[in-house]
């Protein structure tokens, strides 16, 4: 699919923006953590859209946030 | 407090409802 851009996001309602970002993030996160991809994606969607866009373009920042999310998730579930 | 329903799970192709709980 074509890259998701800030202008494409801005043209969509807020909930649709999160949907668009989630559809892009989920397969990337699923490749890292198949069992937790849904929960991790849900957590990351609480982050600002501008930062989520950056994460889509930067695997390093995505991996960093995914690691943070897993730590929070595990602490939450204890 | 602890919310056992958090975090909301994203499912591809399913309309995202996560923000409704914030």
List low-confidence stretches of chain A: none
CA radius of gyration of chain A: 12 Å
**Oligomerization:** heterodimer
Low-pLDDT stretches of chain B: none
Helix content of chain B: under 10%
Overall outline of chain A:
globular
Q: Give the % helix of chain A.
A: over 70%
- Termini separation of chain B comes to 14 Å
Report strand % of chain B.
under 5%
Number of helices of chain A: 5
Instruction: Sketch the major β-sheet of chain B.
Output: none
Structural class of chain B: little secondary structure
> Most extensive interface, residues per chain?
A-B, 18 and 14 residues
Tell me about the biggest sheet of chain A? none
Rg of chain B, alpha carbons = 10 Å
Kindly report the average pLDDT value of chain A: 93
Q: Can you count the beta strands of chain A?
A: 0
Q: Could you characterize the architecture of this molecule?
A:
The complex is a heterodimer of chains A (78) and B (22). With 78 residues, chain A is mainly α. Chain A has helices spanning 6-10, 14-32, 37-44, 49-57, 59-77. The model of chain A has no long low-confidence stretch (mean pLDDT 93). Chain B has 22 residues and is largely without helices or strands. The two termini of chain B are 14 Å apart. The interface between A and B is medium-sized, with 18 and 14 residues.
Question: Which labels suit this protein?
Answer:
heterodimer; A: 78 residues; mainly alpha; 5 helices; 77% helix; B: 22 residues; 0% helix; 0% strand
